[in-house]
């Protein structure tokens, strides 16, 4: 690895990792990526080497400026404070609060309820209808959050989640929409979410960081 170059430990399909990849792309930060396969060998995040790096055994993890940071929003806020261009948190405190509110709604109120570890436990509880139960659980978790998010965005959105500039909230939205699509959520009740997502996916940073274009993306999922 190149000395001094940031290193991102990531999994192509991890929505939390995708948030950070978008931030790095938007800010033009060159970095090296170390794939951590959350499925292979029972999950490479459980290895002793990775646990020493991140005791929570999760991605993303970013090594930068001589420190190691876990948790996607903490990473994004550090990048914002140390490399503030382009700005991902508005200067206006009211808009900044809205960005953080939406980001937390997704990162704390939706994604953790349908992530890999939770769905694995749900499947263990209901072994007879494992896949059907996991799908229903994920759909319920996402739609519950999206019902609230759609209502909030109707008052905060411009072109994007908060006004007309890309913010941290947008970095959380797009990966969560991808999760919802993977779990076959009906988007009919969410026109605002759908429109914002479509605009964001047209931006280069969101395309470059997309799960279908990562070094560890399986061949059959590449685009």
TrEMBL record:
<comment type="similarity">
    <text>Belongs to the GST superfamily. Zeta family.</text>
</comment>
<dbReference type="InterPro" id="IPR004046">
    <property type="entry name" value="GST_C"/>
</dbReference>
<dbReference type="GO" id="GO:0006559">
    <property type="term" value="P:L-phenylalanine catabolic process"/>
</dbReference>
<dbReference type="InterPro" id="IPR040079">
    <property type="entry name" value="Glutathione_S-Trfase"/>
</dbReference>
<feature type="domain" description="GST N-terminal">
    <location>
        <begin position="4"/>
        <end position="87"/>
    </location>
</feature>
<comment type="pathway">
    <text>Amino-acid degradation; L-phenylalanine degradation; acetoacetate and fumarate from L-phenylalanine: step 5/6.</text>
</comment>
<keyword id="KW-0828">Tyrosine catabolism</keyword>
<dbReference type="InterPro" id="IPR004045">
    <property type="entry name" value="Glutathione_S-Trfase_N"/>
</dbReference>
<dbReference type="Pfam" id="PF14497">
    <property type="entry name" value="GST_C_3"/>
</dbReference>
<dbReference type="GO" id="GO:0016034">
    <property type="term" value="F:maleylacetoacetate isomerase activity"/>
</dbReference>
<dbReference type="GO" id="GO:0004364">
    <property type="term" value="F:glutathione transferase activity"/>
</dbReference>
<dbReference type="InterPro" id="IPR034330">
    <property type="entry name" value="GST_Zeta_C"/>
</dbReference>
<dbReference type="GO" id="GO:0005739">
    <property type="term" value="C:mitochondrion"/>
</dbReference>
<dbReference type="InterPro" id="IPR034333">
    <property type="entry name" value="GST_Zeta_N"/>
</dbReference>
<keyword id="KW-0808">Transferase</keyword>
<dbReference type="InterPro" id="IPR036249">
    <property type="entry name" value="Thioredoxin-like_sf"/>
</dbReference>
<keyword id="KW-0963">Cytoplasm</keyword>
<keyword id="KW-0585">Phenylalanine catabolism</keyword>
<protein>
    <recommendedName>
        <fullName>Maleylacetoacetate isomerase</fullName>
        <ecNumber>2.5.1.18</ecNumber>
        <ecNumber>5.2.1.2</ecNumber>
    </recommendedName>
</protein>
<dbReference type="GO" id="GO:0006572">
    <property type="term" value="P:L-tyrosine catabolic process"/>
</dbReference>
<dbReference type="InterPro" id="IPR005955">
    <property type="entry name" value="GST_Zeta"/>
</dbReference>
<dbReference type="InterPro" id="IPR010987">
    <property type="entry name" value="Glutathione-S-Trfase_C-like"/>
</dbReference>
<dbReference type="InterPro" id="IPR036282">
    <property type="entry name" value="Glutathione-S-Trfase_C_sf"/>
</dbReference>
<dbReference type="GO" id="GO:0006749">
    <property type="term" value="P:glutathione metabolic process"/>
</dbReference>
<keyword id="KW-0413">Isomerase</keyword>
<feature type="domain" description="GST C-terminal">
    <location>
        <begin position="92"/>
        <end position="219"/>
    </location>
</feature>
<dbReference type="Pfam" id="PF13409">
    <property type="entry name" value="GST_N_2"/>
</dbReference>
